[in-house]
Records
---
Amino acid sequence: MHRDLAEGPQSTPSIFAPASTPAHEIYGLSLFVLLITGSIFVLVAGLLTYAIIKYKSRPSDEQHEPAQVYGSVQVELAWTVIPVLIVVVLFLTTARIIFAVQDAPKPKTALDVTVIGHQFWWEFRYPKLGIVTANELHIPLSTDQRPEPTYLRLLSADVDHSFWVPQLAGKTDLIPNHPNDLWMDPRAPGLYVGQCAQFCGVEHAKMLLRVYVDTPQQFAAWVNDQRKPAMEDEKVAAGRQIFESEACQNCHSINGTTAKGTFAPDLTHLMTRATIASGAATNTPDNLRAWIKDPATFKPGALMPAMRLSDQQLDQLVAYLSTLH
Amino acid sequence: MADQTLPIPVPLSGEGHAASGTWLEWLHSWVVTVDHKKLGILYIVYAIFFLLVGGAEAMLMRIQLAFPHNHFVSPEVYDELFTMHGTTMVFLVGMPILFGFANYLVPLMIGARDMAFPRLNAFSFWLTAFGGLLLYFSIVGGFGLYGVGSAPDVGWFAYAPLTARAFTPGHNTDYWALALIVSGFGTLGTAINIIATTLCLRCKGMTLMRMPLFVWLLLVVSVLTLVTITPLTAAQVMLLIDRYLGGHFFDAQAGGSPLVWIHFFWIFGHPEVYVLVLPAFAIANEVIPVFARKAIFGYPAMVAASVGIGFVSLTVWAHHMFTVGMTSVGNTFFVLSTMIVGIPTGIKIFNWLATLWGGRISFATPMLFALAFLFQFLIAGLTGIMLSVAPWNWQLHNSYFVIAHFHYVLVGAIVFCIFSAIYYWYPKATGRMLSETLGKWHFWLFLIGFHITFDTMHFVGIFGMPRSIYTYEPDRGWNTLNLIISLGGFVQAIAVLVFAWNLIYSYARGKEAGNDPWDAWTLEWATPSPPPAYNFAIDPVVRSRRPLWDLKHPQDPDWKYER
Amino acid sequence: MSTVPLFTDESWNLPSRGRVGMLSLIVGECGIFTIFVVAYIYYMGRNAYGPTPRILEVPIFNTICLLSSSLTIWLAERAIEHGAMRRFAAWWALTIALGAIFLGETAKEWYTLIFHEHLTVRTNLFGTTFYSLVGLHATHVIIGLLGLSLIMIFTLLGHVNHSHAERVKVFALYWHFVDAVWVVVFTVVYIVGR
């Protein structure tokens, strides 16, 4: 079933490069549907073209009208039956895949992740592992020998969003008051990209998604890392003090500090993430500094306000954040 | 042809082009008119104006998306652009222009002197017009005129709870809802009028099964409109109750459900697609037979298919919602109901094919557009089948593939048919032919531009690009495709400008049309061009679906053969 | 001038445009009511806090008034068909009175709910759905009453006679619809929903 299922992650998140079972089931179905619809197109468009060329008006027959044909019950019945048959075939095939993907039994080894959509970032909670992170989802590789699919519970904190990583699964919406589920069992390690697929406000375009599929060792190491408390380093105490005394902590939280905000990403292990601003910029000290100074640099319309810190405060804060491995 | 035997009324003295007087009197005559033909023209002119506005909005979006990380417009403006583009094209272009044709043609085609309720007709038009102005007034009325104004920015689908006060303060969403409620009542009035006209004002002998297919389809559309627009009105009233009275319909905190909005919106939104596309079929049903010189093949089947599409379209709305997390059984149901629409649609395409078969096809501009419509509608139907396959829809939904699909329907089918209709009936309404040379330039440019843009759009969707984004990452492999899409947009824009010039140029310089330039068969061609206010001096009497064919071929009339 | 073969079928009867128009309007109205009724039913029992439908009292008197107004307007229709204008005016006036009583009773109900039970549109989901559905219907009663009163005034001024029977009957269709919808609203709100 999973024969050469994936060439692995690609920078173009094509739906025709599936890397997990749901995406692959859909891919197979889509090829079948393409074959049928393609044949219909070739046939009907061919007939149309033929008729248009064959029966085009020629100067020689300007004089009289062609024979008037009003209809034919037999012919019309025949071409009613054919679409009916095609619909039956397509419907049965589709129904099979719907149930196969949507009602697949959840194995005991499955990893649970709760995804909470926010304007304009993703919150990931691993209830059994006690991990909270943002924007970059880490999930384990799933193999036939060691199946470990990930089951996502999709919630929203504000408006509608949609979780879409084309190579891993079809999209599913995050709707307030309507929890949804989505599963995937990635077959090749690496970074899969996607983004929010339901218009959710000004910065919908920069609500990007990164899913890291880790080998078992990588995943274990990552989990281990994330469960540690935040780094404490006396050298950057000034920065930490700014974080705790300014508005930062109203929205963000960092384990082991007074910052317990929940409106914005958890920063306990900020430096383990490759990007900031839900993928809008790479996570470098310069970008971090520019972002804190004025988030509109990367994401005009982001809900984080410009912090109005002095240059010195900015330096100290960035120095502190840079220690949060 | 035996033109002199047509029952053409001589215009009564004092009628016709003798409309002398100052331009103020001229303006007054248009503002107070209750003549269905003048109102029809008003609708069409109004719609063409907004077509240019909506098209300009599309162009701005395409400039923004031509390059990744482009800074041509801000995200806020981009959101306003796509919201206004969608809302404009559906509510201020699509429906008004189709109702404009209905207004102009239905009474003429059924041998009536006006619509059933002429004053309601005028009232409906002015409501619709006011709705459009209200929507655009939001640009200055929402927050006031600073920056770029404040048009609605929640998408034409306006999914709750993004429309709640908490997420969209200000008045722009209110303008969106109010404008559509107002124009919705106008639409409702017109729909009632068309139903009453077709059922109650047919001339002698015009039984239901002798009505031109155009009239049949507009009857179906009008009935569909009654049960389609009203749910949207109801949902928008709920939205306003939430926004103004602090209600909780879509407020998740109080137990309300944003999902309910999605259902209500698509209960309107899907039949709305058929409200728009059935009139396009109606146009094709008139144009294709005339230029293939054959009667429409399988008239009863065409009627049945249209009524069938109308009914089935009421049960398919949730195929816009395969990703909201319905149960597998729910998904399966909507897959089936959606695919069933393919059957009557297939019948229509085959019947058009059979109408062409054995005909004597000439390629005047109206026919070119109608033939292109056939191919494009075929593709739109097939991509529609792809989207109805729920699992595949989980991938394609809200991607550019969907944008490509519905633009294939809305532009490839509907706009092409609208152009066809304008080339076909312009001579009737103005007395002058549109220039064929400019028409062919318009057709080929538009055709090429259309395919460059919308064929490419399918691929960028397959490569994972979602809709409603104001910019995209440069490393996703979407750059070249987006540039191509934008370039195609400009080719279409040039084509539309050629068309606009043709409308103006031919009004003054076009060839005299005569009463029946296309040698056609329906009753409107038995009147002078343009028809007098009373349409028919003597109430016509018909015996078949093609009364003018019977007149032109007295030895071989249709009524001998029709089933 | 016409050279079309003469059409011999003499029985060329088409429906009245007023009737068709009014029925179309009613179909459209049904669309609006359906959405509000569906919303009411869907949100039943999903109320997060505050008063629930248990505080409602079944408006029996109200309902009897409105439903009997359908009967009185029908009697008025019969009267005008026979040209009995005095009888018409009497039944028509009674219809207006019954409609007005219905509205008055609704106003009393709302007064109690707002000032004694402290239920408003913004209180909770029940308040939102209740006032919008019942209010939507009451709006239609008001529109109906305005129309009825207009015809009443014309009647009293002597402008209405036997020849207007068809128009009066077309308007009466609307009033029948308003009554019929109440049966649905009543069932949903006061019987099923309580």
---
Amino acid sequence: MLMVIAGGRVIDPAHERDAVGDLWIEDGRIVAPPGRAPDARHDAAGAIVMAGGIDIHSHIAGWNVNTARLLLPEQRRDGDFAAAPVAEHIGQLYAQMGFTTVVEPAISPSVALQAQLELAAIPIIDKAILLVLGNEDFLLDLLRGGARGAVVADYAGRMLTGAQALGVKVINPGAAAAFKLGARRFGLDDLVPEWDVSSRAIIRAMQDATDALGIPHPVHLHCSNLGLPGNAETALATIAAAEGRRLHLAHLQFYAYGTEGARGFSSAAPRLAEAIAANPAITADVGQVMFGQTVTVSSDVMRQFGARGQAHPRKSVIWEGEGNGVGIVPYRYRRRNFFNAVQWAAGLELFLLVPDSSRLFFTTDHPNGAPFTTYPELFALLMSRDLRAQWIAELPEDAVAVTTLPAIAREYSWAEIATMTRAAPARLLGLADRGHLAPGARADVAVYRPQADLAAMFREAALVFKDGALVVRDGAVVARPSGRVLAVSPGFDRAIERRLDDFANRAWGVAHSAFDVPAGIVPAEVVPCAA
Amino acid sequence: MNSAAIAGRAAPLEAAVAEAARILGASRCAVLGGMATDAAGAAAAVALARRIGGVIDHRHSVALLRDLDVMRTAGWMVTTPTQARARADLALLVGAGATWPGVEAEPVLPPGAGAARRVIRLGPGREAPPPGANTITAGAEELLGLLGALRATVAGRPVRLPAARLRVLTGLAESLRAARYGVISWSAGALDGLAIEMLCGLIDDLNAHTRFAGLPLPPPGNAAGVAQSLGWLTGFPVRVGFGRGKMEHDTWWLDATRMIAAREADAALWLDAIDGTVPDWTLPLIALVAPGAHFARSPAVAITVGRPGIDHDAVIFDRALGVLVARSGSAAAAPAAAAVLGSILAALPC
């Protein structure tokens, strides 16, 4: 079927297109104007037409997310809980906002199967997992033994394949292993007891492995010392440790803290923004905080153990699994709370002070900074200095005083929004046929109708197409096709499997392949690796 | 192996499915009980319950919810059987049925590696202990008080107990405090909620000084797996109802057995694809059961379904690994529960 989205302002920064025109779709793909009459026509006059949004970091599936659901039944007395919606609602809510691809960024190998089943239950959108590596005893043993890069790459390749993952996530490397051995703090150059491997060495090994395998997405790193005052130093040291090689820093806002001011807690976002600007191989997503009830879900078990005292309501789960494990701590961000207000401002400072919107990504680290359902308000804040001023007026003055936010005038343009949430994420993940609107691209398209209430515009897209099929009209879901799962399929030497099985049989009494996602359970679309 | 019956008479599968759909379609409030099934079966049951406004319960909900209620009121720190096996230098098994696969194995990962695991059993002494285990015998009625005293002793608070008992308890507390990675296991079917909460509090206290984790051993019938599936599909573990146009969860109200006894339910679908158990319910009953099930009285509809991971490929919770795993099965004559549930859904009157 030939279809045209007619007369909208088409914004496609990947091809420097920003002009009123038509967008043609046939058989699920964008096509060049074919010179014949369309079978269907959608009027987009006065509207904004962009590729479907891509969220590179949102916790939407897996043992941690599902534990959050089961931990907080009281949060869904009057309907679903925005911080941990059921699978069906995740797909529908994202689609309503014009997002069509979402990456779940923290799945440990032993629970990959569950995560894939959960993703399969999420309708409409395409999904992928990042696989958490870096704290497994097998890997630490390899690194302690001075394993050559090729062996570590074989290990990573085997694990990615078994889990059907899109890339490698590294979460507070070494800390979860050290926590099992009694440690309560762990920094970039601390050594895991008994294994004598540092966080820095694990990061480097996973960078080497990712490059050797040709994985499009760089190592997606959750640094050490998340949430602690003064941890901007950790982020800066980690950027320096990358030594010019590509590295993605997750939810940077949670590392944007200095120790200035009367309370020893301040925003250090300007320094981090400067460092990002100066290091072109570094990318980051923000992890913006928004006010309200949420639940923090993290595989940084050591950090979550330390955060249990701040739980609201007062209960939490620590689940110590293979590798990283899981920590679930419900939390309420309060507008009048000094620390929460600084966090909110620091996130916005990062958004507004990093000049290059192709290297800074739009996230709330759902649900850790806020549920993804707050995205419309966040877009509005980025696009309107006046709106920010209204919010700032509600914050504690001493919190505002330790940030630079009130002085920042920048307002995001449509093209910058499209770069940050479409073109750049597709490039970062290696999804060649997404995030843009040139002929050949997948026809994932969002159409927004500009209005005074910017948030309302983003909350209810006028039209959303998934693979060329209309799925949302006037903010309402009208069709719910199954989305796909995206995964890499890197080459690796299968000799690693014998070593893995030896280890698993000795440690756990089972073959390592017991944890695999069998082919066919969740058919994946293969994202190509570099040769 | 493929068999179906209507009111005790053999019938073609299609006819049995049609009769099941007729009964459920005509019911005002149907319960889907048993629920001993795989992930696909759980998903198909949710779809069916959503459509007919039914209630989903599991035959081991009582034990399952006893653990979950501790988790979701007080929180907990837990681990997996594989972590426990690989790492723990001390295992404390509390109550009946608290042993776990590999408890007797030698730990190979730090901090437990290099020495045999110390295994201590606390509770009724009827079961054969794992090799090398010390047993501290305590009757079920005594256990809660003893756990309270143990927690107090670990915390250094005075307790009043007979001298011999106090010596044993003090020794146990010292062992716990000396462990580098201890695991405390229990089976919720054998303990009450307060005892489980006391254990979780003890684990919290111990983590102030060393490392400890709980190991709740889930009930059979893939209860933990079904609770996970219902979690991502409905947000709730079991005892989920769709009767009022939204998903609701109530551990008392949506108890299938209670609803049937109180005549709140007027039809039931029982699903046990794992053990083939059958309830003694007398309301119109559709039974989807594993081969070999024995019926004391003929249900309105009986359909034999395949055993997950034996007769067909399935995803179920592996109680030795503590996670969902895929199990392959050989193609058998009996259809998978998910397929039968899907057929019933498709056959419902519009």
